Structures are given as structure tokens and as C-alpha cells.
């Protein structure tokens, strides 16, 4: 076993969350070790980004120009065949006054290249990056505080001590259990996703050619993500009860499901499924919607999929992961620099992170409810009016301020149902894509649940704009945006 090493912070995982928190802490001059269990580049799903990541987080990482020059497919927004109408409609970033201008786009990315850019950037900022070094356990002091980790470096055991450990190791890691508590899975979003890749698929017309296409069908919905002129990521999301059939023959199940979604099937009419290389597999993810009881404990924080994940329908995964990384970095930096007591800094991290998760949870619940006219099992089970008490209790806890017991559950249900109705009306007023009304989405963006879901991302993009505390009695970003500051 190698001797103890010491760093200010140890980060577990080199994906977008891990490389981001490591870079942002290193930018404040603190020593950071990043342990990644795999060798980059490696495959990951989650290819469709939001503007807050591209123009907010990447700016703070000082990697915005490199990402812009990587040749990724430009994404103006999303095109959806979803809701009461049968014609696709657009959700375009530029229509939002908060996202207008040069930052009104995002990218569809090859995650192997995008993640490599972020990890290499962390090393450039002074992070000690070690690949093929999985963490195997945490170190604690006599009071139970996490003080470091045990890890393996090509079979050689080592230990490293740190003031903070950040777990960004994803959904399959187990070290998140060190903070205590449980991971709670959502029944409402209890789906299974099966996905693969095609060469030669069609593209949407004109400036929408880079949009993600999401289309509902009887048994669920499909995504269609143009990664380049030739390569397309395609997935089908169905109820978890289909898991056995999917696992029995995932390729055939995938092709059958995609074939039942007419608009996606039409886009693939002349396409060929990729069967070789990293994109040649048909992959499956199931029971992926969850949140842990807490996102931090003494000496340890969770970010990214180690902390929570909602649903892939609006490309929120990388946003929530990198947003959590930014919050964690600000709180850690504020404590290490002596600017704030730990309790105050970590309360800001936990409160803001849970708030953003709850905002997207509410929005995506409402988005599924928009499809309420469908009477198939998948969509009947995803009506806000029928959401189960377990999910309602979790939502009421996330939102906060709701009474406990039956009164609180009824209030939570009313809120979700109302959000679904308002969102449905906003979509109906938008009009079909490729028409003048499809470019005018004022009603949709005035919908409270849409306004809320855009707010924090737009603040990150704005950068350096003085703001009010997001939480009652809370903090605001520091002048350099890498820490927290008190108001007044």
C-alpha cells in the first residue's frame, strides 16, 4: 500500500460533474485530486445539452471556445410530437427572452469527446487527474467525518486524505451510501430506456436540423438526436414492466419499439443501424429516476447521478450534474477560503440543488401529463391526477412549505395537475413547427412551470449579474462566481 497523500479536495469520477467541480475548486487555488475508474475516452449516454451548460458552466470552466470549436452539432431547441395535436411543435431557446442572443443555442455532443475535453481541461487547471483508479471506500476520523478515500491504482492500494470528498461517480457507484440515508426511486418515472445508433437518418428541415426530436407513441416515447450529418442517437422509453422482454432480445425489442413510433420510423426509413464499434451496441437503462435523502454529510458531497436523476425527456441530466458541481465548488471554496462557516455554505448547496431538482421534477411531471388524452397503459399511468402518494410525498418534501399528511398530498397533486393543464395550453398556443406560430412561443414561456425551469440556468448564463438570494435568507454568488457571498 502506498502512503497517505493529502489534498484539499478529492473528486470521484471524471464525467461532466466530476471534472467541473474539480476545475472550479482548482481555479480558487486549492489542491484537487480526481480519481476516475475508467480510461478516457469511454462511452456515456446523455448527448443533448442545454444552453446553461454550454454558455454558463463552460464559460466558468474556461473551456467555452474549445467546446464551440469541437464541431458538435448546433441545437436550437427541441421539436416535439407530444400533446393533443398530431403535428410536431418547437421549443426554441431563442424565443425565451432569458436566452436570446448569441447564447440561444446548445449542442448535441459525442460524450466521449465532450467528457475528454472537460477532463483534459481539469488537468490544465492543475487538477491531479488519475485514470483507472477506482475509489474503494471512505476514510473517517474518530468523530465519523469523512476525511478521504481508499483507492486502487492498477492493483496497488492507496489512501488519500482530504478536507472534502465529492462523489461524482454516477448512478452505479456505491460510495454515496457513506453519507447515510437512502436513494428513493420514483414510481411515476419508473421507465426503461433502450437505445442505439443509426447512420443515414433524415434531418428536420432548415434551421431545426440540429434539434432533438421527441415523439410520443402508444407505448411510450422516442428520442432522435442528430449527433452529426450521418450519426443519430435513437432511444425508446417504455414502462418498466417491459424490462424482461427488452432484456431477452434487446436488439429486436429496440427495433420493434422504434418501428411503432411513426415519425421516428419515417426518419429512419433509409438509415442503417450501427452494429460495430462503440456505437454498435443496443444498450438499456432502467429505474433511473431517483434522489438521495441528502446530498451532503460531514466532509462529503454528492453531485451528478450520484445524487439524483429525473428523466431523459428534456435533456436535463448533464445540466443537473454540472449545476450541482457548480454549487458544490462554490460551497467548498467558501469554506476552504474561510469566507463562510461550513454549515451555512453546505445549506446553500443542499437547498439550491434540491430546489433545481424539484423544479425539473415538476416540469417533467407536467410534460408527461400533457399527453393525458392518450388512453394506453403507459400514458394512463403517467397522469398527474393518478400520481401515487409516495411520489407526492417526495415532491412535497422537495418543494418545501407544504403541510404534511393528506392536506399536503392534495396540495401537491393540485399543483402538478395545474402545471400540466397550463403547459398543455401553452403548447396548443404555440402552433406546429415550420409555421409562423411555431416560432412564437410567448404563451408557452409565460407558463409558470416553464418560467421557473428556465430561471436558474439563465442566471448562470448571464454571469456576473448581481442577484438576490435564491433561498430565503440565503447567499448570492461571489464576484468571481466561484464562491458564495452574503447580502448587504
From TrEMBL:
Family designation: Belongs to the flavin-dependent halogenase family. Bacterial tryptophan halogenase subfamily.
Assigned keywords, A-Z: Monooxygenase, Oxidoreductase
Any one GO molecular function term: monooxygenase activity
The organism of origin for this protein: Saccharothrix tamanrassetensis
Protein name per UniProt: Halogenation protein CepH
Manganese found in the keyword field: no
SUPFAM superfamilies linked to this entry: FAD/NAD(P)-binding domain (SSF51905)
Domain of life where this protein originates: Bacteria
Pfam hit, one: Trp_halogenase
Amino acid at each position: 500500500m502506498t502512503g497517505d497523500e493529502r489534498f484539499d479536495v478529492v473528486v470521484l469520477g471524471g464525467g461532466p460533474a466530476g471534472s467541473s467541480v474539480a476545475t472550479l475548486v482548482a481555479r480558487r487555488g486549492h489542491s484537487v485530486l480526481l480519481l476516475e475508474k475508467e480510461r478516457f475516452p469511454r462511452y456515456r449516454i446523455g448527448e443533448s445539452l442545454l444552453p446553461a451548460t454550454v454558455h454558463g458552466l463552460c464559460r466558468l470552466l474556461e473551456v467555452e471556445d474549445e467546446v464551440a470549436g469541437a464541431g458538435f452539432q448546433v441545437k436550437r431547441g427541441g421539436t416535439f410530437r407530444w400533446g393533443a395535436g398530431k403535428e410536431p411543435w418547437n421549443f426554441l431557446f431563442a424565443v425565451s427572452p432569458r436566452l436570446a442572443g448569441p447564447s440561444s443555442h446548445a449542442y448535441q455532443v459525442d460524450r466521449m469527446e465532450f467528457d475528454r475535453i472537460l477532463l483534459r481541461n481539469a488537468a490544465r487547471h492543475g487538477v491531479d487527474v488519475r485514470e483507472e483508479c477506482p475509489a474503494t471506500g471512505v476514510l473517517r476520523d474518530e468523530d465519523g467525518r469523512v476525511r478521504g478515500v481508499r483507492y486502487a491504482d492498477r492493483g496497488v492500494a492507496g489512501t488519500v486524505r482530504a478536507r472534502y470528498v465529492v462523489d461524482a461517480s454516477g448512478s452505479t457507484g456505491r460510495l454515496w451510501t457513506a453519507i447515510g440515508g437512502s436513494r428513493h426511486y420514483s414510481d411515476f418515472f419508473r421507465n426503461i430506456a433502450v437505445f442505439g445508433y443509426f447512420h443515414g437518418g433524415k434531418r428536420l428541415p432548415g434551421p431545426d436540423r440540429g434539434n432533438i426530436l421527441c415523439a410520443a407513441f402508444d407505448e411510450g416515447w422516442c428520442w432522435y438526436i442528430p449527433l452529426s450529418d450521418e450519426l443519430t442517437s435513437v432511444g425508446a422509453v417504455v414502462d418498466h414492466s417491459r424490462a424482461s422482454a427488452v432484456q431477452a432480445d434487446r436488439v429486436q425489442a429496440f427495433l420493434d419499439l422504434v418501428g411503432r413510433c411513426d415519425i421516428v420510423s419515417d426518419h429512419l426509413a433509409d438509415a442503417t443501424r450501427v452494429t460495430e464499434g462503440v456505437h454498435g451496441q443496443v444498450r438499456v437503462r432502467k429505474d433511473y429516476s431517483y434522489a438521495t435523502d441528502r446530498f451532503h454529510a460531514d466532509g462529503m458531497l454528492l453531485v451528478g447521478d450520484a445524487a439524483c436523476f429525473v428523466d431523459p425527456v428534456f435533456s436535463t441530466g448533464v445540466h443537473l450534474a454540472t449545476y450541482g458541481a457548480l454549487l458544490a465548488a462554490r460551497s467548498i471554496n467558501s469554506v476552504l477560503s474561510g469566507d463562510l462557516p461550513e454549515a451555512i455554505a453546505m445549506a446553500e448547496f443542499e437547498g439550491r440543488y434540491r430546489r433545481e431538482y424539484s423544479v425539473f421534477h415538476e416540469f417533467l411531471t407536467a410534460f408527461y401529463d400533457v399527453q393525458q388524452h392518450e388512453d394506453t397503459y403507459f400514458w394512463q399511468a403517467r397522469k398527474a391526477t393518478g400520481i401515487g402518494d409516495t411520489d407526492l410525498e417526495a415532491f412535497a418534501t422537495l418543494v418545501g412549505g407544504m403541510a404534511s399528511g393528506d392536506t399536503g398530498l392534495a396540495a401537491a397533486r393540485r399543483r402538478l395537475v395545474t402545471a400540466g393543464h397550463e403547459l398543455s395550453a401553452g403548447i396548443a398556443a404555440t402552433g406546429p413547427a415550420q409555421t409562423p406560430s411555431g416560432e412564437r412561443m410567448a404563451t408557452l414561456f409565460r407558463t409558470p412551470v416553464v418560467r421557473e425551469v428556465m430561471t436558474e440556468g439563465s442566471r448562470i448564463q448571464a454571469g456576473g449579474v448581481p442577484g438576490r438570494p435564491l433561498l430565503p435568507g440565503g447567499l448570492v454568488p461571489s464576484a468571481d462566481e466561484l464562491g458564495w457571498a452574503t447580502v448587504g
